[in-house]
Design a protein that fits this description.
Three copies of one chain form a homotrimer.
Chain A lengths: L3 E3 L2 H5 L8 E18 L2 E7 L7 E11 L2 E10 L15 E8 L3 E9 L4 H5 L34 E9 L6 E8 L15 E10 L2 E11 L8 E11 L5 E11 L2 E14 L2 E12 L7 E11 L4 E12 L25 E11 L1
Antiparallel strand pairs in A: 1-2, 2-3, 2-4, 2-18, 4-5, 5-6, 6-7, 7-8, 8-9, 9-10, 10-11, 11-12, 12-13, 13-14, 14-15, 15-16, 16-17, 17-18
Chain lengths: 353, 353, 353
């Protein structure tokens, strides 16, 4: 997707030769869809803020410091297109400042995605968004601190983090991040809420494989409980079809849930077919597994604009109540009873700038 | 008012011929005034965030998709210039994504003004803002869900809406919007909070006439009560003077209030004189009518900057307590006792970009 | 620091000659540091959002109206880089609209810094930010309405203000601002929360001296208590060293605290050494004084990017419990017991655009 760049007066007025290239970029995604989810006999219909990509607005820039060194910032916040950002616009998706070098890599301070979460959205055709997104079901964790959602046992994003991204080494990439718990030493467990995560990936031509791992000391949960997440994903782009697979497991507090996901994207006309199948295995409770099937098609009106439709179904065991997610600040999926199956669909338009 | 456009790198780097014209625009209004309102023997003075136009900041863009088709977005939020946006900046004025065509019109998803509200602000010289604004008095509805204000019996804006704007057909324009209530089918009345609204207008040379209609299923009020609003406005620009008239009625829950408004704008020097007279008729209570008179002058320092002053008076029957509005997050009009008359004035500066 | 300017379409499409120069500028600072503060035996470590400058994002513009007259706006809000702006982004640092003239000065409406606060940050090498900042200790006022912090007995910023800045008169500058309390006349003391402040400065070559004075009618404190602050600062730039001194006193409600500050900045290589020493004298309590020492170095990677480190120590008398500040929405300094000494350090990177 093409980005709009604010023309830098730095560039316009730069003294000849003395000043390096710099830019500040305004960017965003505005995505809205009409969505419907049925859980058992109860359904709800409304407008979702993003069935394909999270709606967002951001500013980012990079300054060439010379000698291969660069400084940069990234401020990106989520938009609720459906109701105009209920709780106030925030740069909650990413707020970072960084110094980077081609030789030494990048040091990044602020709020950013956890390296341990990237695979979960990378190796699913629907990413982590919309009724088809892998994010609709919790792995380990209570409802209020769902794994794979915000700030729980396996947080999607790290606040108060220091991250280090390795320089590009052939086909291999790697990164690590630490998130401060910011508790005083007067508290019994002053590492509460802290987290550490790693990711390594290997990308050679059409092949992409990656491993992620993270540990969080239960921030919103009991003091002293460590939650661990491990995930592995792979995709291979044959051109006419791109299959992908994801394995993810999260454990902590005597619970463990495994996720096996299989997906495929197929270029079709000016668009793309998407399909995914996922199995959620609760390793500590019997009869508490779920299966999810999602199908979708997106048609590109341009490189920046896509109209799309998605349909998904979650089949729950008698002891499971996993649902489907809708990305909206006001549209909530109906609550799911144990063993109820859930169906959802949405169609919408995504515009990037 | 001139808009500033962020120069699109899309345009700067576009491959020859292949790429259509696109732009992202930053725009806004910063308006502040010193305002004073007296209700009976009590008065208050302070800084209002916009006596002439609501202060705002926004980003919007359009992408030419070729073949007469276009995609666009609009993100616009209100500013509280007086105290720096108390509750956090939000794109609460408009958050939409749309696909449009010269032949088929525009499909618009998100949060937008209700078509049923547009006449109320179009056919008043002071619009819906400041001590002179038509918005200072409720029609039907409780204090907390005032008609003609936010999200009440006749909401100013629709969240979760799907709108359709007809293509231009000669001198006629038309649009319709539906706002999802987003209640689950488990709730007795799952259309609660939903709304539908229409508007048609005819504009030929100096003449502008428009009809609006809307129905809301009481969102913040009792379940199952439908509120209906109907309004009709006309203006004719003679050049030396532009008279306008507005009739609006709202009813629901055994209440009905009618509004008759008459206004005029007169170009004078580098500015404009404004005057309006309005009568509020409570059709279900006797001795509960009000009359409002507002006078103002705005002097244009440029096309983008105006200094202005407004004075207004609301005369209440013994059983009425309609007030005057100030557009501020911290400056509240004093409460009005039954039968008390209210006087307000403000002078300020509005700058657009 | 170089600013990025959004290219104005006004300039691009201006009719020949008719239109004056205008611009809208996007600007900001993204500053993050790893910070640690120890108070007695308790310490806390985490990520601070700005150890050198407050992180911020803003839009500002000026329109040349011709004849020496100009209109302008300034919208600037604080960023919490550490966690993505917890409570929502706001234009809380400055939200103003103004009309100015070279002959008559500037009239400014909205939210802005109090003239009585400017010296406190101007004549300290660390300004009012970070563990080294002068802002870490309260002068007069309760903990919740700390002098020199937000909206207390000597507010840093005025909401609802009308300010007037004198035109440049030789080496002398002056300004005054009034902040409306916005209480109705039905309240016993309707000037509650209001404030008035003045500042005059004289700048001739390397010399800079300034006097500030302000009075606030206790907004968050008892009705009818006036708080007064007076401060005086001076600096002289010898080139190889720039010494500075600050005297500030605040009184009200039978309390008075004096501050004597001495600082120095020394250019060193591509950076700057900073040192400050401050004494806080409680004039109404015995054995309640404190001393603060701060040392720092900042290295400029470019004009826009600096890496820095600061170390500071507050030494409290037995009856004092002044602390050190960290600029973070989630990282709070440990509470300080009476007589405990406090040590803090941080190192970070600041990037401006």
């Amino acid at each position: 997707m093409k980005k709009q760049t604010l023309v830098a007066i730095a560039a316009l007025t730069a003294a000849a030769g003395a000043m390096a290239q710099s830019s500040v970029t305004l960017f965003g995604v505005v995505d809205a869809s009409v969505a419907r989810v049925s859980a058992g006999s109860v359904d709800v219909t409304g407008l979702s803020s993003g069935g394909l990509s999270s709606s967002r607005l951001g500013f980012r820039g990079v300054e060439d410091l010379g000698g291969g060194l660069a400084a940069g910032f990234w401020l990106e916040g989520g938009l609720a297109v459906d109701n105009g950002t209920g709780g106030g616009f925030k740069f909650d998706r990413r707020s970072t400042v960084s110094v980077s070098s081609k030789s030494f890599g990048e040091l990044r301070l602020g709020r950013d995605k956890s390296p341990a979460y990237l695979n979960v959205e990378t190796f699913d055709p629907f990413g982590d968004i919309g009724v088809g997104g892998i994010n609709g079901a919790n792995l380990v964790g209570s409802a209020s601190s769902a794994a794979g959602t915000a700030e729980g046992s396996a947080p999607k994003r790290y606040s108060n983090s220091v991250g280090y991204i390795l320089p590009k080494m052939g086909d291999f990439s790697g990164q690590v991040a630490y998130s401060f718990g910011e508790k005083t030493s007067a508290i019994a467990n002053d590492s509460m809420g802290s987290g550490i995560a790693l990711r390594g990936s290997y990308t050679a031509g059409p092949l992409n494989v990656a491993l992620g791992w993270g540990k969080s000391r239960g921030g919103t949960d009991a003091v002293g409980v460590d939650y661990k997440s491990t995930n592995f994903g792979a995709s291979y782009n044959f051109g006419v079809v791109k299959p992908m697979a994801l394995f993810a497991t999260e454990k902590g507090g005597n619970k463990r849930v495994d996720l096996f996901g299989f997906g495929v994207t197929i270029p079709l006309g000016a668009g793309e077919l998407r399909a995914s199948y996922a199995m959620f295995k609760d390793k500590n409770a019997s009869n508490a597994d779920s299966k999810k099937l999602a199908l979708g098609y997106g048609y590109n009106l341009s490189k920046r604009t896509q109209v799309y439709g998605t349909i998904a179904r979650m089949t729950n065991d008698d002891g499971a109540k996993r649902g489907l997610a809708m990305s909206s600040s006001s549209l909530a999926s109906p609550s799911v009873a144990n063993g109820a199956n859930v169906t959802g669909y949405e169609f919408g338009v995504r515009h990037s700038f």
